[in-house]
Amino acid sequence: MLRRPKPSDSEADLLREQEQFLAMGTPSTVKMVRRPDKRRGEGGEGPEETGGDQRDLVTIADLPEEMPTLTPAPPKKSRFKAERAKVHFEDEDPEERLDRHDTHISAVLSRIVERDTSAIPVSLPAFTGTAFPKVLHRSDTEKQVPVLPGGGRRSIFARQIEAQRLKEGRAAGSTQTPAAKHMDLPAVAAMETDQPPYKIDRLLGVEAGPRLVSGHGLRVSSGEVETLKIHQENQSKLLAMSQSQIMEEQKKLLAQLDPKLVDFVRSHGKQKAMSSSTPPQPPSSLSSAPHRDQARGQSREEGLVSERRPPAPQHDLPEVEMEGEEEEEGEGNEEQTPPITVEDLPVQPQKEWLHMDKLEPDKLEWTRDLPAPRRRGTKKAMQARFDFAGTLILPTQDLPTHLGLHHHGDEPELAGYSLQELFLLSRSQVIQQRSLALNTLAHILNKARAGDYVSVLRGNMVATLLDAGLLFLLRFSLDDSVGGVMSAAVHALRALLVSSEDEDCVDSSFSWLHGLAWFPLLPSAQEEEDEEDEGLDERFRETQKEKEEKKTDHDVASDDVVKGLLRMKLLPRLRYILEVVRPAPRVVQDLLEVLTRIARHSSSAATQVLDCPRLMETVMSEFLPTSWSTLTLPLPLSVYGLPLASAVKLLRVLSTSGRNVCARVLNSLGARERLSRFLTPDPAALLLEEGEALRVTTETYRLWAVAASYGQATNTYIDLYPVLVRVFQSGQHARPPGDPLLALELQRTQALVTLLTQVTHTAGCHQELQAGLVSSQGAECPPPPPVSWGHVSGLQPMVLGLLKGCVRGLDNPAQRPSCLTLLPAYLLYLGAYYSQLSGQSCFRPVDTLQELEQMTSEVLLPLLSHKAVQGLINNLKSCSVVCNPQSCPGPQNPPSLPALGCPGWTARLGLPAPSSPFPLLTALAYLLDALTGIHKGLSRKFSVLLLLDSVLVYLQACSKATAPHLSHASAWLLRHEHQLLYLFLRLAHRLVPADPELARHASLLHQVALVLLPWLLPGSEFLAHELLSTIIFNKDFIPEGQSGGPEAAELAELHLQEAGPSSSSPSPQKVGSLLREACVQMPSLRGCYLTHLGHLEPSVLTSRDAYLGRTTSIASQLLPELSGPTLPSDWPYLPLVSLYERAGVVGGGGLQVEDLPQGALQSVTHCLQWLLLLEVWREEVLTVVPPVAKLARLACVFLCSSDLFLERPVQRLCWALLRLLTRPSRLDTLDLNTPPPGLASFQDLYSALLAQYEAVSFGDPLFGCMVLLPLQRRYSATMRLEVFGEHVGLLRSLGVSMEQLSLPLERFTSPPEDSLPLLRLYFRALVTGALQYRWCPVLYVVALSHLNLFIFSQDAAAQQVESARRSMLRKTHYLTDKVLRGHLLLFQLPEQHSELGFSTYNQLPPVRARRLEAVLGSPESSVGLQS
Length: 1427
Description:
The chain is mainly α. The protein is built from 64 helices and 11 strands.
């Protein structure tokens, strides 16, 4: 046999193989065929042809020349193609080929039968005396028009032709067969029905004629007789056959006919049946109208009940369903609308009207009055309809027609437009219809984002519209050349992307602590592993950018709406509209808000907005000019050439994305000059409408504050210092309480104070940077900012005076809301001032301490004790997002378009509401943290804040709360609440050692710190570091370790052992001493965890710069992407998991163990100590970690090394933790069927644990208990099968005694085992000696218990199970090992504390003896069986 050629073979090898093949003489499996080239006139197909340039073709036997079609298609029947496909040879005789394929003419002529035409009347043309035929007039035929039996509609021309045919005696379309007419039967008797023919004849009581054979063409005398004779013969045959024979013959007949022909005959019969079922109507009653109305009503019902139609694909028109209500009267009770008559027409025709002398009322049906809408008789959802304002119209609502909400759709009586109809109108040829549809969609989107449809519509409105292709529709509409349509598209796009309430809510928090920072509105990242990249090296995998480029626009928009719009070149189009079209003021406002929302998406989107050619230049030149004329109208017709607050806000949001972008905005775009131009004059002198002037100056202050947060534009502060002081001092003279512009004035003052706060932070960095620049000696170092501490030192007295004025204003109910609004800004400024003061060279400690004491007694304590502030503090728990997760509404937008979900935020109780205490308390706690850092003695004076009942209740609720669902709607609120909790804990850190009263609540505060740590979001890494460094591992916050806590833990464990001696093993080491050691090692524990969190150091440093106000080091006010909390919920297990990932390498199905890193033993010991402390004293903190996850993390101790678990400190701590994990109350919650977080299944981890036990356990009882724990009866039999099947060898070393077993034996033996393969493995292990009591006593008893119950069970079971019972019992009886034989037959009950672990009978009980006798068949077989 020849070998197959290899790629490495040379040409000589191939030639040698060819010679061997030819020498063997084996016939080839392929054949060389020379196909003639028809274009050159070549012929012949054999290899002997030598002429011409012919191609060599290789053909393989049984292989068709053409590829088979992938999908079945009907064959094309073309005779010409078939003829061309045949091969003809030149030497073939054409005559012979014609004779071979042609048939004789007799084959055709022999089948011809002459048709009898003697009975057919002949009509001759009428003779007239005119030269031309008479023209048809409607007046001549109007009374001769036949009525269609089915009530169908016919045109005037068709009725004229029909009348002419009737006149000539050749009327067509009769519904009666000749036989039926001969017997004078009605038409209904001859129509096609579902009944057999003989049943119809019996019902009629006559011998009806055939319906298929008419006898047409035969002689008149014999035609009808022959047809009747054929019919009678068919009837007699049918009567002689049974029903089954008739159906069988029918199936045979149908199988022989063409299915298309059968379908055609059936459909034709149904049409005739429908047409015959309607009685004839007079011509004037328009019989087609009821039938049409009925069909239209049926279509309306199908449109309303959307469940009856299949779901629309992604690009189909959308459907939004209304919630069903109670069933009312049914559809079948509807009365048919009578047909319209001439008298019913709203306008009577006049004789003078051309071509209106003859009306067609069926075509005027639409002019009649609409019927009143009624609820359909269904409980299913109905299609939603909206008016032009986006308001949902109920199906029972009867609206007048002059509103323009009725149209000629499928449901003309229902007012409003469905989403499908709006989508169709938006692509209409009529401009007004396109504009109307887009404006209506905009209103619907606004109401949907406001949550108006949540209670009445099923599904998410915005998601439904996006799935239907709304984004592409709006993008196409933006390219419309008509200005009105373009404006409507912009308005709809703004309604889709922008929420006014979200923007207002965010702007209101701008002056809060760190309110400038912002989470990017990016959709939640979903990591999807590509199948193509699976198993590839990192170097060969596609990057994220390459994957994005491969996606289509639809895929990108489905994942991220804003990114999809950017990919569809939205920004150049918006630039064109702003620059060239120059739309109305409302459109300009919408466009600027859309650009602002795009800039909020991410730093990349903000950069694209800034880089778009001529976009920002157009915004700066047209909407932020440096000079403009006075307004002549309150509402100008055009805003071009006028400053707009929304344009300044766009610059502010762009600047938030990064330091470099802010520098480009200030310098390249000329925003620095706009700061001076808009802020130097008073708002009244800006030549703008007063409200717009206040908004422009407010946004300008905010833009400047963002720039100052990077340390930029501070030289402008020096230039405008007199102006700022003048504005600041004038803030004391606020507007009267009833002024409508008061809210804008307060926002302007807040923005100004926020600006001064950021400038003060920047000035506080001047001295440090100056010193660094001097000591750098030529190395790169950031230059100090132009503003120094001396430029801001004069602001503190003014702010303190304004703060005192606000505190006094709280007594005046009219001024109280304004004072409560401004207090947080003033407190935050003073906190920033004193936090930077201690690092300045001009700091005077003595004078500062006196100043702080005076401010505390005169301002802060009166403020804290004021009834208005106390009233706010009482709302702390009710406004909390942590304590009330339901207060944060669910997302109204789809995941591809995240939003904040702030509709109605001013009206409901919540964190951003006006009645919320969070802004004031956060600012106050920030100031107190700065003051107590300078003056330690002031700490006890502020303990009253933490000891308030409302604050303690709030902290107690937070300690028991679970982590709220994380979304963009909740993250920005949670971030502010986390800051308040952190500041409370910072204040408590200084107060607990000094205040005994607050020290009583140390455990509560420690619990709050432990709960808060895994809640902290990206950007708060510095807070996590501070909690770990100061509070988490602070002995002052763990009073249990100092007041008899270890002893109490020992007593509790002793009580547990006495209460249930069978549920716990004796303690190798007392828990109390372990806890005392852990308390002593608390600083080492803190260092261990800080070391393992070292990978967060860059994030901690970035977060520290933001929280400490180091403005020159802040790179961006845009927070990291919202991907989840900073620390995982199981962070206490982090050292174990980290060590396992570094030391353990999975490969080849087993676990290869490497050398442990240096200090691993100490790290594991500290981790286990901390876990033990939390399990005993802070059990509630670890409830967020599932018990199966705890077990999986603890297994890392055994998997990461071959001898780590043998170390004495590790052994002691692991025994204690295992006993805590296997308490009776904990065992019931341990579910091993649930995959642990981070693992595909617990089964994979257990397989690795078994392999490790076989390799390195040395029979360690601690490791053995870990292996035995998953073998409980309540868990899956898969793990027990793996032990007794693949790892049966470990049974020799699994020597855990009954005393060492940390859980009750009954959990292994009850209920009885029902897995037959496992029982067979039990029996095999016992019989072969692989499982013996001296090696593995626990599993020996377990196997005995299950096998004894199985072999002596007499319950009804399958044949296979019963055979296995009898076989095992028979084999057990004949065992040569008498000890094992006696244990299997005489086993009674498992007893964990007995000598053997089970009890036995003295002799075989009678029931078992009879069972054994029945199996063996001899009564003597059971004799002699004794214990």
